[in-house]
Write the structure tokens for this entry.
Amino acid sequence: MRTFAAAAVLAAVAGTASADVITSWVNFGQPGDQAASPVGTQAANVTGTPMTRGAGLGANAGGNSLNSNGWDTLDSTDYISFGFTVDAGYSVDLDTLWFGSRSSNSGPGSLAVYWSGDGFSSPIFSFAQSGTAFTNSIANVSALSGLTGANEFRIYAVDGTRADGGQGISSSGTFRVGDHNDGTNFTEFRFEGTVVPAPASAALLGLGGLVAVRRRR
């Protein structure tokens, strides 16, 4: 009886997990020089934070994107920020990060995504911009699992390489982020993954107490 009930709880807990969009950001329809891009889709028990520029970057027009200039200094305030907070009692296992990006010829050519969990010290995904062509990325970020609380992600230029292959990013050189495009379909800048409820052990403990009470009656 008790074994059957415990198995039922485990099945119920497992059934609540879902592979889905964790958080997305709306860049379509934006002018590019907006202060922030709003959150779009959010999974249950996750709250996204708007996409913004670090204090070292300037705003630049560029339709359907969040666009920026001022990447030449390569300092700690030159970044694009986005993220989410996970409700207490839940965690997130990430799977993929989808986005599109573009630089001007004198904008950054070598960039990477970093995570607050290690103090933005190691890239979780690196990518390159070639000339003014759009780059469409689906990054495997499945190494990031069990995420709780607040999580911030930043895109930094990792060196002075320009998108045209030269050295020395110009102060007027730009970099924009927006939707991923596979040639036919546009997909909002987004994380995909799974929201995981609190460990089953907590639920089993509660069930065990309930069974004990019923037996005493």
